[in-house]
Design a protein that fits this description.
Structural class: mainly alpha
Number of strands: 6
Helix content: 55-70%
Order of helices and strands: HHHEHHHEEHHHHHHEEHEHHH
Distance between the termini: 64 Å
Number of helices: 16
Strand order of the largest sheet: 2-3-5-4
Largest sheet: 4 strands, antiparallel
């Protein structure tokens, strides 16, 4: 029995980083499992703010005003003469009101142009975003606890050839656990690791970059102040929740910074996010088919939440709405 225990310890010391994080899945099993999981050929999730922007002018407000007709500029001057409100401010208000009316026409219930408040449709979309955030938050929490371990783990999904090279050349877990490695051994490992990383091809670098970017986006997404933003809405009648622009300013800028820029979320990243959270649950007796079934279940639920995120992005023109909320045509996230 003692020999068996020692043999298990020795075998454990030989395991790669990936095997240590997900016991019971060796490199071949991992590759085969990922191949089966992705054999449906489903495209990576694309997150882009594709809601129709109601204003296509690319310059600033001052430039736009110069391009207006003489009669309209005369009309603005007359209003300035009467009200003493700066002409550029009058024009700013005109343009934003026109944009708000166009948004309301295309997406009724998103905002109220004359009342200057976000309406029930925005509230509904916001609550679905919170549900998505609640789903992903526990997984991101575990990643934030040990980001280094996760990114090593994730690389075996999005760049398996790089992970195999690192494990072969410089995996510290190949060293005995009960002996502190000598400085020259540590230096040699770092040199080997540096050599592997320097020789990455462009495709591998891009895959890793996109993967890390998508995880960082998920982290930012789950950190948004949903409860505070939702609390700014008031039930005015029969479950119709609205929020004045002045109240929305507090949180909208943070939300806009996350949703304004688009990105792609590779399926392999989501699979890594899930399996990393399960590393303590999976043992050598855990059947690969069971792991695949649990991953597929996670991916299905994740897909439904991403569908709601994409719905928000298809309905809410983030930059345009920000200009309206902040009453500033030149506002950007």
């Amino acid at each position: 029995e003692q020999n068996a225990v020692l043999a298990n310890v020795e075998e454990s010391q030989k395991k790669s980083t990936f095997d240590r994080l997900v016991a019971g899945l060796n490199s071949e099993e991992r590759t085969a499992m990922l191949s089966r999981l992705n054999q449906a050929g489903e495209a990576d999730i694309q997150l882009y703010n594709d809601a129709a922007q109601v204003d296509t002018f690319s310059g600033n407000l001052q430039t736009r005003l110069k391009n207006e007709s003489f009669l309209y500029k005369l009309y603005i001057w007359l209003r300035y003469f009467i009200t003493k409100i700066p002409q550029i401010q009058i024009y700013n208000n005109d343009v934003l009101l026109g944009m708000a009316k166009k948004i309301n026409k295309e997406h009724p219930g998103l905002l109220n142009p004359t009342g200057e408040y976000l309406d029930s449709l925005f509230f509904e979309r916001l609550t679905t975003l919170k549900s998505a955030s609640d789903f992903f938050k526990p997984y991101i929490y575990l990643i934030d606890e040990n980001p280094g371990a996760f990114y090593v783990f994730m690389s075996s999904f999005v760049a398996s050839e790089l992970s195999d090279k690192i494990n072969a050349a410089a995996d510290p877990y190949n060293l005995p656990e009960d002996i502190e490695p000598a400085p020259e051994i540590r230096t040699d490992l770092l040199k080997k690791l540096d050599d592997v990383l320097k020789n990455m091809n462009g495709s591998t670098k891009n895959s890793i970059y996109q993967a890390v970017k998508s995880v960082q986006w998920l982290s930012s997404f789950t950190a948004l102040p949903y409860l505070h933003f939702i609390s700014q809405f008031t039930d005015i009648k029969d479950g119709v929740f609205t929020c004045p622009y002045s109240n929305a300013k507090v949180d909208f800028e943070t939300f806009a910074a996350v949703f304004d820029s688009g990105l792609s979320v590779p399926n392999e990243v989501l699979e890594a996010v899930y399996l990393f959270s399960q590393k303590k649950e999976i043992s050598g007796n855990y059947m690969t088919s069971d792991i695949e079934a649990s991953v597929k279940k996670f991916m299905s639920v994740a897909a439904s939440h991403f569908k709601n995120i994409k719905m928000f992005l298809s309905v809410v023109p983030v930059t345009t709405l920000g200009k309206i909320i902040f009453k500033n045509y030149d506002w950007t996230p």
